[in-house]
Design a protein that fits this description.
Layout (H helix, E strand, L loop, with lengths): L1 E5 L4 E2 L10 E7 L9 E3 L2 E6 L4 E8 L5 E7 L2 E2 L13 E3 L3 E5 L1 E3 L4 E9 L4 H4 L8 E8 L12 E2 L2 E2 L32 E10 L4 E5 L7 E9 H6 L25
Parallel strand pairs: 5-18
Antiparallel strand pairs: 1-17, 2-10, 3-6, 4-5, 6-10, 6-12, 7-8, 7-9, 7-13, 11-12, 12-16, 13-18, 14-15
Length: 258
């Protein structure tokens, strides 16, 4: 279970109160810089996107040891392009490290940017795999025989101190066949958004090695996304349509000044 792994630049962050999770996953709008708000509904986390919106997956290692995060978008592994399974390639985060994954990995130097788009134009649909469009998945593994636990770094006044490594780990974990995919039952409303294969951008990474402590992930997270209108139709978000008001034949009022 020894894995070759990839490493883009990253930042460390001040320690947070323990949550039980190994890695925190957020989605950042690359144009505005804001994190997309997550909405909890019927046991799932949801977020709303807009067509053309470029985004990045923001990962934070909440532990003092190295961990492997295998990522999928629309049921597709973001590093290898395979139909996703936890046993595949992912990113290795150093202790307390934060990274941004901004696209589909094309090489050690480039990614193709993530952006929300109409479902037929999504990368998954264009490669014949539209069934799981609309979900971002993460499976996290601890490292076997990790190095000594590293104390959390803290912000300095002149910047942030911390490690600068993350990685792609490609060794299969025997017996693991769990796909990061949406449930097979029919959704309440048709999926509107998917994730496209956008413009190439420089995003350097390097390989490293990672041996998983177990064949099963210690943390699995799914974030379901769609357009605001589609989520409103499912009852996840309030409708943006103004409430209908009955017209009045003689509305109360007085003569205004000219």
């Amino acid at each position: 279970m020894l894995a070759a792994a990839l490493c883009p630049p990253a930042q460390a962050f001040a320690r947070r109160p323990p949550s039980g999770d190994l890695v925190e996953l957020q989605v950042r709008d690359l144009d505005s810089g804001r994190l997309l708000e997550r909405h909890y509904h019927r046991g799932r986390w949801h977020l709303a996107g807009e067509p053309g919106q470029r985004y990045a997956l923001v990962l934070r290692n909440l532990t003092g040891e190295r961990v492997l995060a295998v990522l999928s978008v629309d049921g597709v592994n973001v590093v290898s392009g395979q139909t996703a399974a936890p046993s595949q390639s992912g990113y290795v985060l150093e202790p307390w490290q934060q990274i941004e994954v901004r696209g589909w990995r094309k090489s050690l130097e480039q990614v193709a940017e993530f952006h929300f788009t109409a479902l037929p134009d999504s990368y998954a649909a264009r490669t014949g795999r539209p069934e799981n469009v609309g979900v971002i998945g993460m499976a996290v593994f601890r490292e076997r025989r990790p190095a000594a636990v590293t104390p959390p770094p803290y912000y300095r006044r002149d910047g942030v101190a911390g490690a600068e490594d993350a990685a792609k780990a490609g060794a299969p974990a025997a017996g693991t066949r769990e796909a990061l995919a949406a449930p097979s039952h029919a959704p309440e409303a048709r999926q509107a958004l998917g994730t496209g294969h956008g413009q190439r951008r420089w995003d350097a990474a390097r390989t490293t090695h990672f041996e998983r402590a177990s064949s099963r992930p210690e943390q699995v997270l799914s974030l379901y996304y769609d357009s605001y209108e589609a989520l409103a139709a499912r009852g996840v978000l309030p409708s943006r349509r103004p409430a209908w008001r009955e017209p009045q034949a003689f509305p109360v009022g007085f003569v205004p000044d000219p």
